[in-house]
Amino acid sequence: MLGPVILAASRSDKMRRLVSAAPVTKPVVNRFIPGETVDQVVPIVTDLTGSGLEVTLDVVGEDITTPEQATAARDAYLELIERLKPLGLGTKAEMSVKLSMFGQALENGHELALANVRPVVEAAAAIGTTVTLDAEDHTTLDSMFAIHEELRKDFPGTGCVIQAYLFRTEEDARRLAANGSRVRVVKGAYKEPASVALQGKAEIDKAYVRILRILMEGEGYPMIGSHDPRLIAITQELARRAGRKMDEYEFQMLYGIRGDEHLRLAAEGHRMRVYTAYGTDWYGYFMRRLAEKPANLLFFVRSMITKN
Questions:
Q1: Which of 22, 131, 211, 292 is deepest in the core (most CB within 10 A)?
Q2: Rg of the chain over CA atoms, in angstroms?
Q3: Given this model, what pLDDT does residue 34 score?
Q4: Is 206 helix (H, G, I), strand (E, B) or coil?
Q5: 268-306, pLDDT tens digit by residue?
Q6: Three-state secondary-structure class, residue 271
Q7: In the annotation, is 172 catalytic?
Q8: Can you tell me the mean pLDDT for 149-161?
Q9: Where are the beta strands (DSSP E) in the chain?
Q10: Side-chain half-sphere of 223: how many Cα atoms within 13 Å?
């Protein structure tokens, strides 16, 4: 029952102020969101890639209410790409974007988001890397998939995210697997009604495995967004059965969570990408990480006193 409560709190200005002002908050947030500026995050990228890991970078912030804010979000990603360029990391450092940041919810939002995200995808391709379109709540997905399809015409490496708890996702997975897309599969972190999404953990886990099988047997590139040891083991077995080499799929985990597992998978030869968020508007991102698995609340508190 905690998940919906935490998600509701993620949209509350009052809770934002209380959480932001609490003395305990900053040490915890710093563990999982390593900086507010591109200057702070670039050294993190260097350290992670130097350890054999890969990264996907998310400039956090979704509450866009004006076209000017959407343009500023675009420019923040363009600045990031400029800073990555001299590092020569190629696809070892990609970007993840939420189309809500690019104006998707505004008037004529679909066209506005496409117009804002295209220069980011172009700039990323120019330095040899890619962009993945993050999934948001179910009402935005038709627009996101349409933008993904449009971008892939010129930039076929553009990725997208699907969420296992939605009833529609198995069909989406079949379509994306057939057309050779890069696809990150996650369980889902938004409060969705029972009319469109599974509600129980066991059912969601089963759906996740069914979707993994579809992606592994398809023509695309699966990206497994999970910290669950059981799902990681299942992924490895499904990849083996599908005849996939270790560079034909990848694991993705959040910065600050199970860092030892990041390094273990990379040492075994797997592609292991660390989802690394930064920026000043960290609150919504942070609260959704708690809501994904309310037990993370205890994990986050414990994390203040442990490095692993």
A1: 131
A2: 18
A3: 87
A4: helix
A5: 999 999 999 998 776 666 666 666 555 555 655 554 445
A6: strand
A7: no
A8: 98
A9: 54-59, 93-97, 131-133, 159-163, 182-186, 221-225, 250-254, 271-278
A10: 27
57, two tokens? 């970078």
Q: In terms of residues, how long is the chain? A: 308
Q: Look at residue 65 and give its three-state secondary structure.
A: coil
pTM for the predicted model, two decimal places: 0.87
d(CA 3, CA 16): 17
- What is the spatial distance between Cα 158 and Cα 121, in angstroms, rounded to a whole number? 8
Which residues on neighbouring strands pair with residue 275, listed in sequence order? 56, 254
C-alpha 29/C-alpha 66 separation (Å) is 27
Tokens representing residue 86 in the block: 């001299």
Per DSSP, 268 falls in state T
Q: Which of these is catalytic: 182, 184, 271, 273?
A: 184
Catalytic: 184? yes
Say if CB 166 and CB 197 are below 8 A apart: yes
| Contact call for residues 58 and 44 (beta carbons, < 8 A) | no
Residue of 134, 152, 182, 205 marked catalytic: 134
